[in-house]
Amino acid sequence: MYELIQTVLSSDEKTILRQLISKLSASGKRYFLRNEILQAFADYCHQFQKPAYFFHSSSLGTLIHYTHEIILEGNDIWLLVRPRIGSQEVWRLLSADTSNFELQTPQALLDVCDRFVDRYQSPILEINFHPFDRGIPSIDDPRNIGQGLAFLNRYLCSQVLHDRAYWLNVLYDTLHRLEYNHKQLLIGDRIKSGIQLYKEIKQAIKIIGERPPEEPYENFHEQLQALGLEPGWGNTASRVRETLELFDRLIETPEPAILEAFVARIPAVFRVVLVSIHGWIGQDDSVGRPETLGQVVYVLEQARSLEHQIREDIKLAGLDSLDIQPQVIILTRLIPNCEGTQCNLRLEKIEGTENAWILRVPFREFNPKVTQNWISKYEIWPYLETFAVDAEKELLTQLGERPDLIIGNYSDGNLVAFLLSRSLNVTQCNVAHSLEKPKHLFSNLYWQELEQQYHFSAQFTADLISMNAADFIITSSYQEIVGTPDTLGQYESYKIFSMPQLYHVVDGINLFSPKFNLVPPGADENIFFPYNQIERRDESLRKKVNELLFSSSDSQIFGHLDDPNKRPICAIAHITPVKNLSGLVECFGKSQALQKQCNLILVTNKLHLSEATNSEEATELERIHSFINQYNLQGQIRWVGMRLPKPELGEIYRVIADRQGIFVHFARFEAFGRPILEAMSSGLPTFATEFGGAAELIDDGECKFHINPTDLEGTTKKILQFLDQCNTHPEHWHEISERVIQRVRNKYNWQMHTKQLLLLAKIYRFWDFLNKENREALLRYVDTLYHLVFKPRAEKILEEHMQR
Question: How big is the CA angle at 480 (ends 477 and 485), to the nearest 5 degrees?
Answer without folding.
Answer: 100
